[in-house]
Amino acid sequence: MATGFSFTLHATDGRARTGVIATPRGEIRTPAFMPVGTAGTVKAMLPESVRATGADILLGNTYHLMLRPGAERVARLGGLHRFMNWERPILTDSGGFQVMSLSGLRKLTEEGVTFSSHIDGSKHHLTPERSMEIQKLLGSDIVMAFDECPALPAADEAVAASMRLSMRWARRSRESFGDRPGHALFGIVQGGVSRDLREESAAALTAIGFDGYAVGGLAVGEGQAAMFGVLDYAPDLLPEDRPRYLMGVGKPDDIVGAVKRGIDMMDCVLPSRSGRTGQAWTRRGQVNLRNARHADDPRPLDEECQCPACRGYSRAYLHHVVRAGEMIAGMLLTWHNLHYFQEIMAGMREAIAAGQFEDWERGFHVLRAEGDIEPLGRPGAA
Ligand SMILES: [Zn+2]
Predict the structure, then answer these.
(1) What is the pTM of this model?
(2) Residue 147 counted as an annotated binding residue
């Protein structure tokens, strides 16, 4: 493992694990949820507010940052940590996935991918070597190998060819990354929902040797059952003493199901994106603050939640600012959602350490099944 970067497992409970990733920029408690700071900001949040929710690490997107403001510019300005005022660890993706999902006009070759920017149509070229260079310019603490990921469902041969290309790119990524003390490089297991391909991919990556391993190519439209089907075996294909990262996941019940199956790290735009559209995630499931039932409700979103949105404001106020399109709506709901996601992680870490993950998980599902608190009677209706 890279010098200055380490992973220590503290406890396991069933297949669930808890531990700590140590980096020169601070510790990451696992299982960890990483808020997504797409373009150098977790939208609607100050970095200190993100930290206050309990986040130890953020994710930055290579694709977005290379297009705007540009990796060389970020490097000239002192690197991404200084640029965005977040001194703790940052993981950057490789750009591969977002080239697939966001850019126009792509041309894929053995060498890499040429694409046009979704912002201004300008032409760009990404290769494993350039992806490593960009992530180094950004100053990323955890760098992801450059990969290609087909949208599911896809034909088996297409998934196999894409996975094998990604494995050749993984080797080039490893060679290009070199030896960078304090910085880690993670490989990404591909292979869609095929167990044979996942096994082939995991074997190829472990033969190259990485500081951590991601399970990629999930949460791309295959559904939760298929995703859990892969997670029933995929984490066990990876070295036990390295962190395992499930990319782009997910909803609270996806996260809990993934941790149960041996995943240590996750990221998703869901809590922040939902927060900007009036959607809250709570212990009792999803709440749409846009709904008229909240208009006269003086109660907090979640009376047990300690976040600023729940401590200082009523459902009626949140409903009002969502409907009025006020910026504070996105700020408060993003804060609440990120806080709730971090509470889930903290709860799981504690439960795993105490050997009580199963009980914790049962409680999690029971409360969600009960659903949101009953609406209040309409004033004057009684
Ligand atoms: Zn809250």
Answers:
(1) 0.97
(2) yes
Catalytic residue among 56, 211, 254, 267: 267
Q: Which of 125, 215, 226, 133 is nearest to 172 (CA)?
A: 133
Alpha-helix residue ranges (DSSP H) falling in 17-147: 47-52, 62-67, 71-76, 80-84, 96-102, 128-138
The answer to whether the CB of 98 falls within 8 A of the CB of 73 is no
Active site residue 13: no
Structural domain contains residue 104: yes
Active site residue 241: no
Q: What domain range is 336 assigned to?
A: 275-370
Domain termination residue (choose one: 202, 233, 267): 267
Q: Which of 93, 211, 297, 302 is catalytic?
A: 93
- State yes or no: 305 annotated in a binding site: yes
Distance, CA of 210 to CA of 206 (rounded, Å): 7
Is 248 in the same domain as 296?
no
**Boundary (domain end) residue, out of 212, 246, 267:** 267
310 annotated as belonging to a binding site for a ligand: yes
Residues 296 and 247 in one domain: no
Q: N- to C-terminal Cα distance for the chain?
A: 67
Calculate how far, in angstroms, residue 333's C-alpha sits from the geometric centre of ligand 1: 8
Tokens found for residue 133: 């260079």
Expressed in angstroms and rounded, the spacing between residue 343 Cα and the centre of ligand 1 is 10
125 is in an annotated binding site: no
Is 381 contained in some domain?
no
Contact 351, 38 (CB under 8 A): no
Q: How much distance in Å is there from the Cα of 334 to the middle of ligand 1?
A: 9
Over the stretch 264-297, which tens digit does the pLDDT of each residue have? 999 999 999 999 999 999 999 999 999 999 999 9
Question: Using CA of residue 249, residue 57, residue 260, residue 279, what is the dihedral sign?
Answer: negative
Q: Model confidence over 82-138: pLDDT tens digits?
A: 999 999 999 999 998 888 888 777 899 999 999 999 899 999 999 999 999 999 999
Ligand 1: centre distance to CA 269 (Å): 18
Q: How many Å lie between the centroid of ligand 1 and the Cα of residue 33?
A: 17
